[in-house]
Amino acid sequence: GENVEQHPSTLSVQEGDSAVIKCTYSDSASNYFPWYKQELGKRPQLIIDIRSNVGEKKDQRIAVTLNKTAKHFSLHITETQPEDSAVYFCAAGIGNQFYFGTGTSLTVIP
Amino acid sequence: NAGVTQTPKFQVLKTGQSMTLQCAQDMNHNSMYWYRQDPGMGLRLIYYSASEGTTDKGEVPNGYNVSRLNKREFSLRLESAAPSQTSVYFCASKRPGREGVAEQFFGPGTRLTVL
Q: Which of A1, A97, A103 lies at the smallest CB-CB distance from B48?
């Protein structure tokens, strides 16, 4: 089955700096790559996603890049704010199944 | 729309007890999922149902059973709870998409403790 690895597991940045989280996947058939944000005690919520036929997607301060050849994708958050502090999960989707990374705990220091 | 709802929110069981976690969605989605979330492990798929009347095993199905009661409801049953099943359980649903690509929507979760 698919194997998704996510790094780093924890990340601390100063407010206003950028944060980058990286994921790799193993199955070249994966065609959908969502990123979820989960605040403490809450449900995961989609923040951005990218399909396999697109290399980059941006939504305000958040961007995702995908390198299909290398089988890796990354989340970029610019101008970080304290409210960006949360756990972020990447996932790789194949048809009806989704495989999640182990999460990155992001702390934005005011 | 309520989206995806789950009951109960919290549950404490003793080893060997059984229980059913309930999930319902009002978005007319075909696919539904049960995940467990453990510290440092991310979300792991227990079972999923691609459509009404079908269910399939995910990564960690042992010790669980599911029922897709109708298009709206997908329940998860623990027949004989074990401490290793202490976790937070999330239900999710997904609409059909081109080549299966579509967003998952998650319920609020059930925090289960097995003593």
A: A97
